[in-house]
Amino acid sequence: MPNNMTAVFLPGNKQVDVRAVLVPEPGPDEVLVEIKASCICRSDLSLYYGNAVISGGDSNQFVCGHEPAGTVVKVGEAVTEFAEGDNVAVYLAVGCGVCHHCRVGIHYLCAKWKCLGFTMDGGNAEFLRVPARNLLKTPKGMSHLAAAISTDAFGTLFSACRKVGVNGLSTIGIWGLGPMGAAGTLAAKAMGGRVVALDPIAERREFAESLGADLVLDPTAPNALDQVREFSGGEGLSGAIDCSGQTAAHNMALDAAAPMARIALVGENRETTIKTSDHMIRKQLTVFGSWYFSIDEYADILALIKSHKIDLERLATHTFDLKEAETAFRMFDNRETEKAVFVR
Predict the structure, then answer these.
(1) Which pTM value belongs to this model?
(2) Which domains does the chain have, with CATH numbers?
(3) Which of 9, 79, 106, 323 could form a disulfide with 132 if both were Cys (CB 3.0 to 4.6 A apart)?
(4) How many angstroms from the chain centroid is the CA of residue 172?
């Protein structure tokens, strides 16, 4: 085991700092994971710019990255359910372990929670120390790259689709076809829904179509809303998921929704404006935020991936070495990549 490792920090102001730091030593109930794949997420750009969407610490002190996967290389003396050589992904939220929210598996609602890559060391490094309870054992045959994507990117949209109630009778709209929207297209199709995917970028629409979207549209086109309504038989969408975080997309989704529809807001946005009477009261819509997934959902996430032979690696358009972190974040920020992943 080496004494030092390469790790990536995001101090803000579009700076990327690649440092050599000590390899951490796991405590009694912790494990040390050798990271093989770690994804860049759009929320990481809040650290990149210096306005973190999850606050509570100095980002310059913590290794970034909240979507890692790898192999267990050392276990603490109290760890019994994991062993050296296990392939794992890592759940990003570290809770107290004993409050109600932790007991039911929603660690990110814990009042004392910490977040990988934001308020504690994350996975954009050669090694990561985490509590053993945060490990997600991955099945034989799943690559580390697919395992990393299966967490925040795919798992978040799986959970959103489940909350929306996607099934074989559903007609679902997905706004914003970056990595999250693309993952949502895969998840919604696997759950049986018909999907209309919307994004102003033509290449993203083409990619969503290749993933199985039934209809792809430019939401800024004058007749886009009419086409959505026609696609949904005139009644409107039974559900919608916004991954863009744009107020215009929120309002278009609400306009396109059928009465009693369910709308999940996934894209980060500090504030938005909607037509309360027309959308919420008259149509009796249910609009809610959806972030990440409960840890007990991971078994179902893996089951859907396996049963529908979902190729998550298709979502990774670019891979990088940790030493190329400055280039990786610059390209991701400039939308020259979709899902970008550090691999070893």
Answers:
(1) 0.95
(2) 4-149+311-343 (3.90.180.10), 156-289 (3.40.50.720)
(3) 79
(4) 19
